[in-house]
Design a protein that fits this description.
With 631 residues, the protein is α/β, with parallel strands linked by helices. It is built from 21 helices and 26 strands. The strands form seven sheets. Strands 2-6-20-21-22 form a five-stranded mixed β-sheet, with helices on one face. Strands 8-9-10-12-11 form a five-stranded mixed β-sheet, with helices on both faces. The chain starts with a strand and ends in a 10-residue tail after the last strand.
């Protein structure tokens, strides 16, 4: 048998039966046909075989995010200014200022998820005064986790918030002394006010949504992601909002495998939604690139235990069990897999009571079902999950909310949020994910840093030696572990003969770099089903043909997505924008160590050459001056 593609001279990590000396793989028709040494794999080369020298780089199975919101995120990716990984608020505000100049009316500038204040050197949020000064006329919407959004005056006008606008139940519109909205909206703890406000913004055209989704998938490929399970999401309707990924799959333009769940959108009409969908969509309908995966993560709205750790734990409605039982009973009867958002152990106890009652009458009998998140699940409930044949999908939300959780519940409680080691010891299937894009970032290496180093993005040590995972185990959760959650175990998640040929070649060795460097890992060659979908650096000659970024003013065109110190701003070189009066040179705005800072008016050269420590973070911070230290 001859191969379509041979990769050799690498350091290949397999999950099952990992053995030293595996340096090469052979791929044919989208699957691995041989895994072994260079000499063994060279036998599969023929005249038509493409061969690639891996240059001793670390190779891992393709990363599988078992809980992300790719479909919704893709529709909006080119609209959003990403602060994921940005090291300082000064950098973030400078990016915001540049994008305000660039964005045409009536579009908004949106910062939606993937960041929090403790990642910044200043360790604070932007103020409404700062945002209004930067953007007096262009609407700006900045979402911070699940707890709040900041809107400038132009955005308040765009969404129609006035002194007479009532806040929905579970939400708050902050007002000044005269009763006018300030621009701060707060989830207390229901995040619906945040999402419903964001949904009022302009959408991209279908052509631009297709382009946006393709670029979002390329961004995921950049980090070695080859598969995801899409957990649905608020304001994501089926089949309308699935048209883009469906069309991309038909045109063979997906570069990430997608298994999608269907998320009810209508409170009190959930059973009606699922009855309609179970009669029109078969379980796992589709192919290896795009397939149905079941119901959830929202099954009934009365069971939504919002995880805003700045607020007390919500108490679920007394009628929740009755509503949930009707939906779960229907799904089990139809043999539809399901997943359910479940943050708190108190909620999980009530959910399991319902599941066990249904199981006594209609046995689950091997049907895959999932709890998502499960930050505070206890050992008794883990055992109940196992008895019912369920799995637990954990996400890196604590990497972005650990400080808030520890402040409210204590550091001892934070040690076990979630208790992943205990789940694994008890034999429950566990899959790793991000819950991107509105809270955590989609960068899986931040997630693996959180699990293996045991720290938040802001540096808080959450887990000790007894509760954090090894790097090997963390990687397994984000590769082989995720396959169970789409009923594809044995098909993907490892580099093994007969499995789908999905892999990533890393720019640094995950198993050898220091802990802090894990967060900056990227792929230099990503392969899905034997097809090269992403390549750079030593492998740039194999890169697919780039596609333009639409629309022209998209933040993606300048900043891409997740911040990369070594390349941030490269796209900007020589790019001049006309803004009001005079030219605005982006390249100098990104990093100017001469003259004064555009944000604070500090003299960079003087600060850079000074050895006087500075600790007034609200006026001038850091001995290097503003954010220059980051470059």
């Amino acid at each position: 048998m001859k191969a379509d593609l041979v990769l050799y001279n690498g350091k290949i990590h397999t999950i099952e039966n990992n053995m030293p000396g595996i340096t090469a793989v052979a791929i044919q028709d989208g699957k691995f046909i041989a895994v072994g040494s260079d000499s063994e794999i060279m036998l599969y080369i023929s005249e038509g075989t493409k061969s690639i020298d891996l240059k001793k780089k670390r190779v891992i199975p393709g990363i599988n995010d078992s809980h992300i919101h790719l479909i919704r995120g893709g529709l909006n990716y080119n609209l959003e200014l990403r602060w994921d990984g940005v090291p300082s608020l000064a950098d973030a505000l400078r990016m915001l200022k540049e994008q305000v100049y660039r964005t045409p009316s009536p579009q908004w500038v949106r910062v939606v998820g993937g960041w929090y204040e403790f990642q910044f050197a200043e360790r604070r949020l932007p103020t409404l005064d700062e945002i209004n000064a930067i953007a007096p006329e262009t609407p700006v919407f900045i979402l911070h986790l699940y707890d709040r959004a900041l809107l400038n005056r132009a955005a308040l006008k765009a969404v129609g918030f006035t002194r007479d606008t009532p806040a929905p139940a579970g939400g708050q519109i902050q007002r000044d002394a005269s009763g006018e909205p300030t621009g701060l909206i707060i989830a207390t703890p229901n995040a619906m006010i945040l999402y419903s406000t964001l949904a009022k913004g302009p959408r991209l055209s279908l052509e631009h949504q297709i382009n946006s989704t393709r670029h979002f998938m390329t961004e995921l490929n950049r980090f070695g992601i080859t598969s995801v399970i899409d957990a649905g999401g608020g304001f994501q309707t089926f089949p309308e909002d699935y048209q883009v990924v469906s069309e991309l799959n038909e045109n063979k333009q997906l570069t990430v495998r997608i298994a999608y769940n269907l998320f009810t959108q209508r409170p009190k009409h959930e059973l009606e939604d699922f009855d309609n969908w179970t009669n029109t969509v078969k379980p796992h309908q589709g192919d290896d690139m795009y397939r149905h995966n079941g119901a959830g993560e929202m099954l009934v709205f009365s069971a939504a235990d919002f995880e805003n750790f700045l607020e007390p734990r919500p108490h679920l409605h007394e009628n929740m069990e009755n509503e949930l039982e009707k939906v779960v009973r229907h799904l089990v009867e139809k043999r539809w897999p399901f997943r359910m958002h479940a943050t708190y152990n108190e909620s999980i106890t009530r959910f399991l009571n319902v599941f066990e009652r249904v199981n006594r009458e209609i046995p689950f009998n091997g049907l895959h079902w999932i709890f998502d998140h499960a930050e505070t699940i206890d050992e008794r409930n883990i055992d109940r999950v196992k008895a019912l044949g369920g799995g637990i999908a954990i996400q890196s939300r604590m990497a972005y909310q650990g400080e808030y959780f520890a402040d409210r519940y204590g550091e001892a409680a934070a040690q076990h949020t979630p208790p992943v080691k205990r789940m694994l010891e008890m034999g429950v299937p566990v899959g790793g994910g991000s819950d991107a894009t509105r809270v955590s970032s989609y960068n899986p290496w931040v997630s693996m840093y959180w699990l293996s180093a045991g720290r938040t993005v802001g540096g808080l040590q959450l887990y000790n030696e007894q509760t954090r995972l090894s790097r090997e185990t963390a990687l397994e959760l984000y590769t082989k572990g995720g396959a169970w959650f789409s009923s594809e175990q044995g098909k993907k998640g490892d580099i093994k003969v007969g499995m789908l040929a999905d892999l990533a070649v890393l720019d640094q060795d995950y198993f050898m770099v220091d802990e802090e460097s894990i967060k900056s890992l990227e792929s230099v060659l990503t392969i899905v089903g034997g097809r090269i979908v992403y390549a750079k650096d030593d492998f740039s000659s194999f890169s697919p043909e780039p596609i333009p970024i639409l629309p022209d003013w998209s933040p993606t065109k300048i900043y891409n997505g997740f911040y990369a110190e070594k390349s941030h701003g490269k796209k900007n070189s020589g790019n001049i924008l006309k803004a009001n009066s005079g030219d605005f040179e982006i390249s100098s705005a990104i990093h100017c160590c001469t003259g004064s800072c555009d944000m604070h008016g500090h003299n960079h050269d003087k600060a850079r050459l000074s050895n006087v420590p500075v600790n007034n973070y609200t006026a001038f911070w850091g001995a290097l001056g503003c954010s220059c230290f980051a470059f």
